[in-house]
């Protein structure tokens, strides 16, 4: 099947119809290229704050509330598009108000009308303060008609025990938003490392470009990327496809789930199966050679 990873620029919308038209065009383009799974980036939903005006955009708490209140409509739109095109969509994540806290939530939509979500687990420093976004469990694995999926939102991909807990997943989705080139590479390295360790395919999407209206996403670096384990049936580099830095659009790659299952069972290395053989701090010995 074909996977699609977005390099997604944020826009200012005069009304809801403009947002609906944009999203519809993006989904139609990827589906028209034969993609079965579309992955949008972390905090791509921040562009919805523009529907509330500049004052809303200028205050992160107000922007978060405004976007959270729109999530019902956002979900309905994504479900319609998923059904119309027969695709699975990981929607762009955004702030959702849960009681008195803000979480960073990404929704997964299936063409059969079902949906689920994954909340980000580990917050970056800026998310913690000044934004006040909090991590929320549990980690999840999604059984779908196109395989077993899991989601690591941006910074989460840099912590291997999370993907290890989701090791049943054949596809690991990594929506990201990074404000510097080094940030992009931290997430990419994490996504590629998780593909190596879990012998799966990771799909990384990114926000790209400038959006001065909202401080949280004022500058973004990235591109789409699809990565696999560097083993039989995959490129020696592990890179199935990559886009062009900061160039908007879709990055596509063909993936055969049978190749993932083959590597896990009969690959030249068995990272997934041999995980528990590594040493931990309980077996650490300090040797003084001074």
Protein described:
Helix content is 31%, strand content 26%. The protein is α/β, with parallel strands linked by helices and 290 residues long. The chain has one domain (2-273): Nitrilase/N-carbamoyl-D-aminoacid amidohydrolase. Strands 1, 2, 3, 4, 5, 6, 7, 8, 9, 10, 11, 12, 13 and 14 form a 14-stranded mixed β-sheet that branches. The longest helix is centred in the first third of the chain and has 26 residues, at 60-85. The model has no long low-confidence stretch (mean pLDDT 97).
Layout of secondary structure:
Layout: E1 2-9, H1 16-32, E2 35-39, H2 54-58, H3 60-85, E3 88-90, E4 94-98, E5 101-109, E6 115-119, H4 125-131, E7 142-144, E8 147-151, H5 160-165, E9 171-176, H6 181-198, E10 201-210, E11 219-220, E12 225-227, E13 239-242, E14 249-254, H7 257-266
Parallel strand pairs: 1-2, 1-10, 2-3, 8-9, 9-10
Antiparallel strand pairs: 1-14, 3-5, 4-5, 5-6, 7-8, 10-11, 10-12, 12-13
Helix pairs in contact: 1-3
């Amino acid at each position: 099947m074909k996977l699609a990873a977005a390099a997604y620029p944020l826009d200012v919308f005069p009304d809801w119809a403009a947002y609906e038209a944009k999203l519809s065009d993006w989904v139609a383009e990827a589906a028209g290229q034969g993609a079965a799974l579309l992955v949008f980036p972390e905090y791509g939903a921040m562009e919805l704050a523009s529907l509330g005006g500049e004052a809303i955009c200028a205050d992160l708490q107000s922007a978060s509330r405004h976007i959270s209140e729109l999530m019902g409509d956002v979900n309905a739109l994504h479900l319609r598009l998923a059904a119309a095109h027969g695709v699975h969509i990981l929607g762009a994540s955004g702030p959702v108000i849960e009681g008195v806290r803000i979480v960073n939530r990404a929704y997964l939509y299936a063409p059969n009308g079902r949906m689920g979500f994954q909340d980000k687990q580990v917050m970056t420093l800026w998310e913690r303060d000044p934004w006040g976004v909090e991590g929320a469990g549990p980690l999840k694995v999604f059984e779908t008609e196109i395989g077993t999926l899991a989601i690591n939102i941006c910074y989460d991909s840099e912590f291997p025990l999370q993907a290890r807990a989701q090791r049943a997943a054949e596809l690991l989705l990594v929506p990201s938003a990074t404000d510097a080139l080094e940030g992009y590479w931290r997430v990419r390295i994490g996504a590629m490392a998780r593909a190596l360790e879990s012998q799966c395919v990771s799909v990384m999407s990114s926000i790209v470009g400038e959006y001065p209206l909202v401080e949280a996403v004022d500058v973004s670096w990235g591109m789409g990327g699809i990565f696999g384990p560097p083993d039989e049936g995959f490129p020696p580099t592990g890179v199935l496809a990559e886009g062009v830095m900061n160039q908007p659009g879709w990055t596509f790659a063909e993936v055969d789930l049978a190749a993932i299952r083959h590597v896990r069972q009969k690959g030249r290395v068995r990272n997934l199966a041999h995980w528990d053989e590594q040493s931990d701090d309980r077996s650490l010995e300090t040797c003084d050679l001074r």
